[in-house]
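Section 5.1 Outputs to date
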Amino acid sequence: MASGRDLRRLAFQALYQIDARGGQPQHLADVRLSLDQWEGFTPQERDAAYAEALEAWNARAGADAAMEALAPAWPARRQAAVDRAILRLAHYQMHRPGALPKVIVNDAVELAKQFSTDRSPAFVNGLLDKVLKKVLGAAEPPRSEG
């Protein structure tokens, strides 16, 4: 059984491929087939990672808008493709019910260390830390005055 971090890595790589292929429906089957090359994952885990990537792809407009609001000088079109995929996946996952946002941020930074440039981990961490504060702030119960 693969760890959550391993499944997140697989979903990131699928999302990166979807983005690289322009999200065109005729190429999605190729992306799905490429996941079958990964050893150490069950067919169910591969299916789940692919579904996660598709859901993050479909939610990319919200993630891109959030990142641009936090870093106006770095809209999605200016981000490295790897960083863009990491940020989109993390943003999507952090907003799901039952998410563990601190774990997601940590895993995203590790993905940036492994797959992107030397500056990317700090960039990814800086943006996702701001998202984390918003997510955690939204999860806090309202305080009663008294």
